[in-house]
Write a structure and sequence with these properties.
- The complex is a heterodimer of chains A (about 230) and B (about 325).
- Chain A is mainly α and about 230 residues long.
- Chain A is built from 12 helices and 2 strands; from the N terminus they run ααααααβααααααβ.
- Chain A is elongated.
- Chain B is largely without helices or strands.
- Chain B is elongated, with a radius of gyration of 25 Å.
- The chains are: A mainly alpha (about 230), B little secondary structure (about 325).
- At the A-B interface, helix 7 and helix 8 of A face loops of B.
C-alpha cells in the first residue's frame, strides 16, 4: 500500500474512534453529496473510507474543502454541535492535501520546553493554478486583457510590438494558458515580480504594461505561499 | 471628415459624430470615451488599445474594424454591423450588442462580462478563452434568437450566463465552464462539450442529440426532458442530477456516476450503462428496454414500474433496490 493509502487508513481509524463519528460522517455526506441524513442507521452504514475518498475527489484543494464546510455549516440548524466535527474533518483529512513530506513530530525535550516558539504556518508553492478562470477574470476586470496577454507573451517568448502586422503567434496563445506557463516558470513571487516589471519597461506603452504587471502579480502571488494543511 | 478633424472636434468637447464616414482611419491608443458614432461608417478602421467606454455605435458599420485591446465597457453596439471585427483581448464588460451582426468576429480572450448578446449573429465567431460570465444571451420574443453556429468557445467562461433558446449547434465548448448557466431549450446538435464543467446548470428541454460530453462534470445539473439520444456521456459525473423524462436512447453512459440522480420516466432504451454508479437513483417508470446494465451498481435504487425487458444485467449489483413490482432486494 502506498503512503497515501496508509495515511487514509490511519485517518479512517482515528475518525471511527472519535466520539463524534456520526456527526463527522453526516457532515461529510452533506458536503460531498449535498444530502442530509437523519437516519442514524443509514449514517452508521455509510462507509467512512469511501467518504474520505469522496471528499478528496470532490475537493481537490484544501481551501475549497474549508470554504464548503463553512458554507454548509450555515445551512445546519444545530451549527454549534457540528463545529467540532468540522474541525476534526479539516484537521485529519487536511493532512492528505499536503504535497510536502510530513515532518515528524519529535517528543519535546524538557530541557527546551519552557519557552514555546510561536508557530508559523507552513506554506509552499502550488504545482498549478487552482481556479484559473477566477484568476483570469480578476486580471481582466480592470485592465484590457490584451495588455496582460502581450506582457506575459513578452516575458515568455519575445518582446511583442503591437505595431507589428504579424499577430499570428499571439493569436495562437490563450491568456489562461500563458498565465499557467508564467506561474510554472517562476520559482518565487519575487522572481515573478522582477520578470514582469523588467519586461514591462521594455514594451511600448510602458505605463499600461506596468499596470498589467501589478495586476498579474497580485493575482498569482497567493499561489506561491499556499498554506499547507493547518 | 478625417481622423485629425474628428480628434480636434472631440478635444474641443463635441461628442456627437452621428453618420460620420471614416472608413479605414487609424485611432490607435486614442481616448474617445463617450463618443457617439451612431450610424457611422467605420469599415476597416482601427481603434487598437483605444478607450471607448460608454461609446455609442448603434447601427454603425464596423465590418473588418480592429478594436483589439480596446476598452469599450458599457458601449452600445445595438444593431451594428460587426462582421469580421477584431475584438481580440478587448474589454467589453456590460456592452449592449442587441441585434448586432458579429459573424466571424475575433473575440479571443475578450471580456464580455454581463454583456447583452440577445438576438446576435455569432456564426463562426472565435470566442476562445472569452469571459461571458452572467451574459444575457437568452431568446427575446419577437426577435431572432442568438446563434453561435460553428463558433469556437473553447475554455470560455460562461458561468451564470442565460442562454435559453440559443442556437449552439456545431460549437466547440471543450474545457468551457457553464456552471450555474441557464441553457433551457438550447440546440447543441453536433456540438463538442468534452470536459465541460456544468455544475448546477439548467439544461431542461435542451437538444443534445449526438453531442460529446465525455469526461464532463455535471453534478446537480438539470437535464429534465432534454434530448440526449446518441450522446456520449461516458465517464461523466452527474451525481444528484435531474434527468427526469429525458431521452437517453442509445446514449453512452459507460462508467458514469449517477449517484442519487433522478431518472424518473427516462427513456434509456438501448443505452449503455455498463459499470455505471446508479446507487440510490430514482428510476421510477424508466424505460430500460435492451439497455446494457452489466456491472452497474443499482444499490438502493428505485425501479418501481421500470421496464427492463431485454436489458443485460450481468454482474449488476441490486442490493436494497426496489424492483419494478415493488419488492425490495435483500
Amino acid at each position: 500500500m502506498d503512503i497515501q493509502g496508509q495515511l487514509i487508513d490511519e485517518i479512517v481509524t482515528s475518525l471511527t474512534e472519535d466520539e463524534n463519528v456520526l456527526r463527522i460522517k453526516r457532515l461529510m455526506l452533506f458536503i460531498c453529496h449535498d444530502y442530509w441524513s437523519n437516519d442514524v442507521e443509514e449514517v452508521k452504514r455509510t462507509d467512512l473510507r469511501q467518504l474520505v475518498e469522496d471528499t478528496l475527489r470532490t475537493f481537490p484543494i484544501l481551501a475549497e474543502l474549508k470554504q464548503t464546510i463553512n458554507l454548509y455549516l450555515k445551512r445546519i440548524n444545530k451549527q454549534s454541535d457540528y463545529l467540532l466535527a468540522a474541525d476534526t474533518i479539516i484537521d485529519t483529512i487536511g493532512l492528505l492535501y499536503a504535497e510536502m513530506p510530513v515532518i515528524p513530530v519529535l517528543p519535546a525535550d524538557p530541557q527546551f520546553s519552557t519557552i514555546a516558539e510561536p508557530l508559523t504556518p507552513i506554506t509552499q508553492k502550488l504545482g498549478y493554478i487552482p481556479n484559473p478562470f477566477d484568476v483570469r477574470g480578476d486580471i481582466c476586470r480592470n485592465i484590457s486583457p490584451l495588455h496582460a496577454k502581450i506582457l506575459i507573451f513578452s516575458v515568455l517568448e519575445y518582446p511583442f510590438d503591437p505595431m507589428e502586422r504579424d499577430w499570428s503567434a499571439l493569436c495562437t496563445c490563450d491568456l489562461d494558458g500563458l498565465l499557467e506557463r508564467l506561474f510554472l516558470s517562476c520559482e518565487t513571487s519575487a522572481e515573478l515580480k522582477v520578470r514582469l516589471f523588467d519586461t514591462a519597461k521594455t514594451l511600448p506603452y510602458a505605463e499600461d504594461a506596468r499596470r498589467a504587471a501589478g495586476v498579474i502579480l497580485q493575482a498569482l502571488e497567493p499561489f506561491f505561499a499556499w498554506p499547507v494543511a493547518s | 471628415m478625417n481622423a485629425e478633424q474628428l480628434l480636434k472636434s472631440y478635444t474641443s468637447g463635441q461628442r456627437d459624430f452621428t453618420g460620420t464616414s471614416l472608413t479605414g482611419v487609424n485611432f490607435y491608443n486614442t481616448d474617445l470615451i463617450g463618443i457617439n458614432f451612431t450610424k457611422a461608417d467605420l469599415k476597416r478602421s482601427s481603434f487598437v488599445f483605444s478607450y471607448l467606454n460608454k461609446a455609442t455605435f448603434n447601427n454603425a458599420n464596423l465590418s473588418g474594424a480592429k478594436l483589439s485591446g480596446a476598452v469599450l465597457n458599457q458601449a452600445n453596439f445595438t444593431s451594428a454591423n460587426l462582421n469580421s471585427v477584431d475584438f481580440h483581448g478587448a474589454s467589453l464588460q456590460r456592452c449592449v450588442f442587441f441585434g448586432a451582426n458579429l459573424s466571424l468576429a475575433n473575440l479571443i480572450d475578450a471580456n464580455l462580462n454581463e454583456a447583452d448578446l440577445r438576438s446576435v449573429n455569432l456564426r463562426g465567431a472565435i470566442l476562445r478563452g472569452a469571459i461571458l460570465r452572467s451574459a444575457l444571451i437568452r431568446e427575446e420574443r419577437g426577435y431572432p434568437n442568438t446563434t453561435f453556429q460553428g463558433a469556437d468557445l473553447r475554455r470560455a467562461d460562461l458561468r451564470g450566463a442565460n442562454l435559453s433558446g440559443v442556437d449552439m449547434s456545431g460549437v466547440d465548448l471543450t474545457g468551457a465552464d457553464l456552471s450555474d448557466a441557464t441553457l433551457s431549450r438550447v440546440d447543441f446538435r453536433g456540438a463538442n462539450l468534452g470536459g465541460v464543467l456544468m455544475i448546477g446548470t439548467i439544461c431542461a428541454e435542451a437538444n443534445l442529440t449526438g453531442t460529446n460530453l465525455a469526461g464532463s462534470y455535471l453534478r446537480g445539473a438539470n437535464f429534465s426532458r432534454a434530448d440526449l439520444s446518441g450522446a456520449n456521456l461516458s465517464e461523466t459525473d452527474i451525481a444528484g442530477g435531474n434527468l427526469s423524462k429525458a431521452k437517453l436512447t442509445n446514449t453512452n453512459l459507460s462508467r458514469s456516476v449517477l449517484y442519487q440522480a433522478i431518472l424518473a420516466g427516462c427513456d434509456l432504451s438501448r443505452a449503455n450503462l455498463d459499470t455505471c454508479n446508479l446507487q440510490q437513483c430514482n428510476l421510477v417508470d424508466a424505460y430500460l428496454v435492451r439497455a446494457n446494465l452489466d456491472g452497474a451498481d443499482l444499490s438502493d435504487a428505485l425501479l418501481t414500474r421500470a421496464e427492463l425487458s431485454g436489458a443485460s444485467m450481468i454482474g449488476t449489483v441490486m442490493h436494497g433496490a426496489t424492483l419494478p413490482d415493488g419488492k425490495v432486494m435483500d
